[in-house]
Amino acid sequence: MQQIANWLKKLGMSEYTERFAENDIDMAVLPDLTDEHLKNLGVSLGHRLKMLRAIRDLSSASVAATAPAAPEPTRQDDAERRPLTVMFTDLVGSTALSAKLDPEDMRFVIGAYHQCVAETVSRFDGFVAKYMGDGVLIYFGYPHAHEDDAERAVRTGLALVEAVGKLRVQEPLQVRIGVATGLVVVGDLVGSGEAQERGVVGETPNLAARLQGIAAANTVVVAEGTRRLLGNLFELEDLGPKDLRGIAGPARAWAALRASTMESRFEALHTSGLTALVGREEETELLLRRWARAKTGEGQVVLLSGEAGIGKSRLTAALLERLVGEPHTRLRYFCSPQHTDSALYPSIAQLERAAGFRRDDADDQRLKKLEALLAQGTSDLSEAVPMLAELLLIPTGDRYPPLNLTPQKRKEKTLKAQLAQVEGLAAQQPVLMVWEDVHWSDPTTRESLDLLIDRVPRRRVLVIITFRPEFSPPWVDRPHVTLLSLSRLPTKQRVDMITHVTGGKALPKEIIDQIVDRTDGVPLFIEELTKSVVEGGIVTETANGYAMSGPATPLAIPTTLHASLLARLDRLAPAREVAQIGAALGRSFSHEQISAVSGMPLQQLDDALARLVHAELIFRRGTPPHAEYTFKHALVQDAAYSTLLRSRRKSERFWRSNSRRRQKRSLKCWRIISPKPE
Ligand SMILES: Nc1ncnc2c1ncn2[C@@H]1O[C@H](COP(=O)(O)OP(=O)(O)O)[C@@H](O)[C@H]1O
Ligand SMILES: [Mg+2]
User: Fold this and answer.
1) How many domains in the chain?
2) How many C-beta atoms surround the C-beta of residue 489 within 10 A?
3) Same-domain status, 419 and 524
4) Which residue has the higher pLDDT, 331 or 644?
5) Alpha-carbon distance 600 to 108, whole Å?
6) Atom of ligand 1 nearest to the CA of 437
7) Is 337's C-beta closer than 6 angstroms to any atom of ligand 1?
8) Contact, 436 vs 333, CB < 8 A?
9) Is the CB of 274 under 6 A from ligand 1?
10) Which domain does 568 fall in, by range?
11) E strands, 335-479, where?
12) Which residues, other chains included, contact 491 with Cβ-Cβ below 8 Å and sequence gap of 6+?
């Protein structure tokens, strides 16, 4: 209680000391206090706002890293190490606002703002961890990691600036937003009852809070660690190095201005050029043959399947490079993980880009640009323009008669208008259509692909559709459709790729061996692991290559891959724990070992293993109880292992729950397999 007394004294509000003590309010519950609570305690409005701000500063400076008085975590086993993107938002000028407004009106304002934040955050699948007066703490990457968490956070921030600005409340509102990404421990439950929350420990929340503090009104400020994950997806302004309280050394900060207009995610994320193509000669040849056939009027479809990072986009880029200088029309469509439910999102984005819309274009300018675009494929604009203008939300005024269609009819006509456009273009010169990442497509887009693929055979069109293996395309049995699956690169090509990434400079053999081994021939993994070795100080540049900087250690998971690896595990929530235990046992483990150390009921364990096998995270040889399991990717194993707290890796938990006999056996296997050092 003395701490509270001191805290109140510091704020110049010692008059409340007694009332706080009477109500058992100590430092531990301070962060849970709401405006309502303080009001009930009889704290005046001005003082309430000051207190809430001070509480926020207190908690943001060390969200749950917190005060010694913080309660003991209740379920320590749930805590995890994971990469997280943390976002702080704050309402600008709320103190002034509350001085101006009647408290009841202020309450309404804050309520509308909170709701707006909650809705926007949930649209991007973020997690509102805590409201602190007008500040909100938000996580991206917890409870579920996404491969694009950093991007989601920034998109949410930009959307929030806009949405909050549009709120219809007494006064126009503005926000400040800070975003930072890093490794944290998340998940200890702190507090109790309603106030219970998942605390986060690490520097990242502090950094996000500090960046929010320096953000100008209506801007989103991101940390260097976040920026590195964003490529060119956004237009960023370098704010230079900043000295931030509680952060060691100057921190580089960037203001995210808006989403960039780059056509492709692949290109936006590869700003410093592509690694020269390694291998894939046969695949390139096949694509060129299909193109040659399509050009003669025998339209073709190639379904390009392969896991994330295997090189689908790279192969497509290689084809585009090969066709430079050849007359053809290129139509590119990109599905996005943030728009899986947004009808015809890839087509809308394609039309907007192709028409050359600019941010500040007025409606009639957009309409003119759309007309010009559609005129390239058809001479009859009377139907196409109003249909597609409606899709792009451009009002047509009295230039076209109103449509008055049922939703079903409207959809049919929209799809037809799109198709007619492609056919019109193909009548003039061959068309190459690329649909990327169709595993993220919305249902209407898939319907439009059904129609397109049926129409293709007699047109000069090659359609390339890329997707991950979890998507099963319904089009495989058509005669003009070819399925092409990309497999992992063989060892020799892995080494070639490493050399390309280092720009020809040789890495020490033990490093090359590790990269070749741990990346399992997935080009994305090879690229990122090699870059992280070169940039991470494990090696030092010499006159003719690189030399080890110190003793060889196992390579860490590159930060650029961490979230996406974890996302694969998070999708399988109940089976995840089994993956973690398996990961601690090694790349391969037996059914006997895992049942000995997991201490789980057999049925539950087998179900979990079956799910992991089904999701292709692990392979199984033999049948339980004599089965052997192997992680498909060493890096997924690493990611699963990395989530365990160090304390749990040593894992009294594993041993405590087992009988002595089992314990001995598992201890033995534990030693043999010897988990990797931290
Ligand atoms: N055959 C290859 N040669 C060189 N680099 C490659 C090759 N395949 C993929 N890459 C690189 O690996 C990364 C992942 O490939 P990408 O095409 O984005 O995978 P996908 O589209 O299948 O997810 C990219 O940076 C890409 O340039
Ligand atoms: Mg791709």
Assistant:
1) 4
2) 23
3) no
4) 331
5) 50
6) 21
7) no
8) yes
9) yes
10) 561-673
11) 431-436, 461-467
12) 516, 521
